[in-house]
Amino acid sequence: MNFDQVEKIADAVLYEGYMLYPYRPSSVKNQRRWNFGVLCPRSYSEQQQGSDAWMMQTECLVNANPSTRLVVKVRFLQIVRRSVGKLRTPEQETPEGVESEIDFVDRLEVGGRVYHPWQEAVEREFTSALLDPASLSSLASLHLPFPAGRQCEYLRDEQGRAVGVIVREWESLTALVQCDSTRCDDGVFRVTVRVSNLSEFGPITTIDREDALGFSLVSAHTILGVAHGEFVSLLDPPADLKDLPALCHNVGTWPVLVGDEAETVLSSPIILYDRPQIAPESAGNLFDSTEIDEILSLRILTLTDDEKREMRQSDERAREILERTENMPEEQFMKLHGVLRGLTPLKEEAR
Predict the structure, then answer these.
(1) How many independent structural domains does the chain possess?
(2) In a shared domain, residues 292 and 270
(3) Is residue 184 a contact partner of residue 192, using CB atoms and an 8 Å limit?
(4) pLDDT of residue 285
(5) For labelling alongside 58, which of 90, 191, 197, 208 has CA 20 to 30 A away?
(6) What's the CA gap between 115 and 84, in Å, rounded?
(7) Range 54-67 average pLDDT
(8) Is the Cα dihedral 316, 322, 325, 328 positive or negative?
(9) pLDDT tens readout for residues 183-239
(10) What number of other Cβ atoms are within 10 A of residue 118's Cβ?
(11) What is the pLDDT of residues 23-51, one digit of tens each?
């Protein structure tokens, strides 16, 4: 099994909506983020009567034999709070393990660059060992702890003195992964992968979703791979298995085949067709797959200098988009205009 192709699609899902055009934190559409595949803490979800999910479930079908083995990969983003502070006393040296006195601010300019507080994200993932589809029900539930953390990045002026600091903090998360299987036909198993968020979030003193997001699994999705077997399409199953997809109950996610062979499945919170592909003409992720690359790229070039400066200084991923677009060769732009991939003859109308 080869995860290269499926992970390209999964990366587009992972960062869908990470930051939308015009890619500035001051833009209204970027002030409420993280809308796809969010698994909130169970305690918060239950307080909201389930309006925000805390669990997702993937069920798919696999043709298996005694040598068939499965791999399950769970991926999500964890939110990192980025704060910006000004040191009360500039320092030439910053001793290890000792934090300076800091005044946190909404804006800090150091060395000609402006820094703002923001929400970043770090990728988290879990990959299982090789699993036997016939014995998944005997597997124990697996708790995945991701401990809280804090990092400081000092900002230095032209004299080399530390005058400011970026503080990145993230909460403790606990994900629960459960795998199960049921034989539903001769050699065909229904495989279940359930991902839950059991992170501690309380005592709850607020019902603000923004607070819960710090303890959430964001853009959560599941990738399954099979060796010596094959997955069955839930959208277009073989005639002899056409009734089996109805046995699959998917919650908050939808599994589709990826690649020419039926060896990998992507189960994402965004509904896709079987065998989705990243267009070869695309120069890179724009975090908005509902838009057209050509339109977004042209719009980026029309941003004012101040807007580009904010885009460049707000987030490293946004900066990469800007630099890639500004340096894109003309022939690459021409490829974005459109391509004809195939023609389907029209049926003649009955006379």
Answers:
(1) 2
(2) no
(3) no
(4) 84
(5) 208
(6) 7
(7) 95
(8) negative
(9) 988 889 999 999 999 999 876 556 678 888 999 999 999 999 999 999 999 999 999
(10) 19
(11) 888 888 887 777 789 999 998 898 888 78
DSSP category for residue 217: B
Percent helix, percent strand, percent coil in the chain, to nearest 5? 20, 35, 45
Cα 226 to Cα 2, 59, 70, 205, 258, distances in angstroms: 9, 14, 5, 45, 12
The torsion defined by the Cα of 38, 43, 45 and 46, in degrees rounded to 10, comes to 160
Per DSSP, the residues of 58-106 read EEEEEE--TT-EEEEEEEEEEEEEEEEEEEEEEES---TT-PPPEEEES
Tens of pLDDT, residue by residue over 188-203, are 999 999 999 999 987 6
Crossing angle (nearest 10°) for helices 316-326 and 293-301: 90
Same domain assignment for residues 44 and 132: yes
Domain of residue 303, residue span? 9-33+279-337
**Residue 256 CA to its chain's centroid (Å):** 17
- 18's tokens: 């990470």
Neighbouring-strand partners of residue 70: 131, 226
